[in-house]
Amino acid sequence: MKNISRVAFAAALMAGAAGLAVSPPAIAQKKKEQKGGAPALKLSKDVQNAAAAAQAAIAAKDFATAATQLTTAQAAAKTDDDRYIVAALQLQSEAVKIQDARAANQQMNEAGLKAPLEALIANPKTPAVDVAKYNYQLGIMAANAKDSAGAINYFQRAQQLGYNDPNLPLQMVKLKMDAGDVAGGAAELEKAIDAQTAAGQKPSEDLYKYAIAQTNKKRMGPQTANWIKKWVVAYPTSKNWRDGIVTYGMTQQSAVTLDKGQKVDLYRLMRSAKALADQYDYETYAQWTYDLGLPYETKTVLNEGKAAGKIPASSASANDLMRVANQAIASEGSLAPVEAKAKAGANGRIALNTGDAYLGMGNWAKAIELYKVAMTKGGVDADVVNTHMGIALANSGDKAGAKAAFAAVKTAPRTDIASLWTVYLDNPPTA
């Protein structure tokens, strides 16, 4: 989103004044509006003569004479009609100068446009369509002068008056973002995207990335999470799923700060979405599951990474991690005795841990069974249990059950983790 373009700026301005005919007989006699939207004018004699001379001078590119005649007309102006013609010709003169400068590849000076534009906006003789357009042009000038607040005001007036430019909504977004109103800019962007979608257009992927970057820069975690979800719904690739998850909660610059268990649940999402990208992803995921006491999952992830060609056979860290994971698995032995103990326990903590062990093994049915025991017995974090229950149900193919479990998660940041899983169920990667 760069500076607002000045292309065709002068031509657009001149369109509102180009239909003016200021020869004294024509002005004196017209009662109806002229073609092109310019109003019928009844001018005082002194203004008529000076305005006609000024228009002839503008046509001849004699801007010094035009300025002198317009100064005379301005001094003689007594009515709104008089003041309208003076401002319109001042605008035309400045616009022609800008066109000539552009044609000669010279630097353009837009400062002279402001006064006549403001005068025309304030004049009741100016057609409503031109008032809207002139507000828009002043908005462009303010935006290019880095006056975001002023530009927003002008653009809002233009919108209220019915000005319809396809770039205006995105210009408003950038201005609000640049002025520090990230929430306001994001709201404008959401409206712009909704409008494009309603019109049968596919919004650019860059719009979602822009909103994610801007909200994340301000540490607006929930808003960033929502934009990530919108992005992967619109562009559900494995890479986007990974990038979105990493942006949400996997680095120091992420939208939210997560603990290791919460990050592992996001790694599980990346694994299900086939979005684990490289050796770092696989080995970090494996290390964290080992740290959480889940050696079966550690071993499975390492084997998948090697099979995918992401973990080289020579990786010392992976080989050492595999060694200690196998040792832990051998020490644990069968889970059957622990399962029985979990079901007889006074609370659900052993059942939760045993369910997590089964989850790591890929035994979804047993994991779901133990999570239900944990919920029945209580004494556990219900949001953790429901998150893990949803993951097991999702991997077992029970989409409806998984959504119900994820919907039962009530506290942030797990609500966002559960929501990302739910979005994944409906929008799995397409590539």
UniProtKB/TrEMBL annotation:
Signal peptide extent = 1-28
| Signal keyword on record | yes
The protein's UniProt keywords, in alphabetical order, are: Signal
**InterPro entries recorded for this chain?**
TPR-like_helical_dom_sf
Query: Mind telling me what this protein is named?
Result: Tetratricopeptide repeat protein
* Species in which this protein is naturally found: Sphingomonas jeddahensis
